[in-house]
Design goal:
Helix content is 57%, strand content 14%. It has 84 residues and is α+β, with helices and mostly antiparallel strands. The termini are far apart.
């Protein structure tokens, strides 16, 4: 028996979602083709995310933005230094 893991990372708004619709169709087709397989669905928006993970995600966002911020500071610094 095979186990299929489906990870949902969608906020589940009232709007139509192609990704959720496609996932549902895939799950139905997979279940029909592989009736004895186990399907595990992990919904990241339904599960409580620990505070530490939230802080790490926020830190990740800062780290992703940091190089852009530093490049802009460097450009500003070079412009200021040229005008002195």
């Amino acid at each position: 028996m095979t186990t299929l893991l489906i990870v949902l990372a969608h906020p589940h708004t009232d709007d139509f979602s192609w990704s959720l619709s496609t996932t549902e169709k895939f799950k139905e087709a997979y279940r029909q083709t592989n009736p004895s397989d186990k399907i595990i669905i992990r919904d990241l928006f339904a599960e409580k995310v620990p505070a530490l993970v939230t802080k790490l995600l926020q830190l990740g966002s800062v780290i992703n933005i940091l190089p852009i911020y530093l490049m802009r500071l460097t450009k500003i610094y070079s412009i200021v230094m040229k005008n002195i």
